[in-house]
Fold this sequence. Notes:
The protein has one domain (about 10-225): P-loop containing nucleotide triphosphate hydrolases (Rossmann fold). The protein has eight helices and ten strands. The chain has helices at about 10-25, 45-55, 75, 85-90, 95-100, 165-175, 190-200, 205; strands spanning about 30-35, 60-65, 110-115, 120, 125, 130, 140, 155-160, 210, 220-225. Strands 2-7-1-8-9-10 form a six-stranded mixed sheet. Strands 3-6 form a two-stranded antiparallel ribbon. The chain has a two-stranded antiparallel sheet with strand order 4-5. A hairpin with a 7-residue loop joins strand 9 (about 210) and strand 10. Helix 4 (about 85-90) packs across helix 7 (about 190-200). The chain starts with 10 loop residues before the first helix and ends with a strand. Residues about 1-5 have low confidence and may be disordered.
Amino acid sequence: MSSPDVEPAGRGEVLTTVAQAVSRQSAAAVVRVGVDGVDGAGKTYFADELAALLRATGRPTIRASVDGFHHPKAIRYRRGRGSPEGFFHDSYDYDQLKAALLDPLSPGGAGRYRVAVFDHRADEPIQAPALLASPGDILIVDGIFLHRPELRAYWDYSILLEVAFDISIPRGAQRGEGSSDPGAPENRRYVEGQKLYLRTCEPRRLATVTINNDDLLSPYVVQPR
């Protein structure tokens, strides 16, 4: 979703701009940052690089992913293994995500959190250690669907990485995740489920900043909120 009115910047420049904006958030409490985007948008790498930049400035950073809060398979696939609606509605346990991570790190929270509760590959709960955050820490969570109604109020700063499906799906395939063809039947669950999210939740309208990440070396800011 490129814009002819925006000149691409170097990756380092964009990351530095975002890191500076996050650093300006109040240090009186934990700063909660969400990195949203479709599968294959580059969320994990972006979040890891952002965390490294912030740590280099002396800001302690907590890294987590929504993938540590999946539902069991019995729930994820209860509408059928190919269901886009099932992918959108049933993939994640948002009650657990809030109880274990987001609520403890929100204003008034106890500060004791866990970064994961479920291993979706093994399809079983995990006992991640409970850790204690301090005011001024920065939580960076990457994942799909982060601007759903259940989550959008938690982010002090949120990033939407926009990537076209004809780029994001082949990226996922390079990691060994199915066909590189966005139109392949095996990708319908994921592509249509994410289109449902983009259509109904309008993350571009809600994100603090939207970044085009089609070219990993030259992302650029599409729009600030």
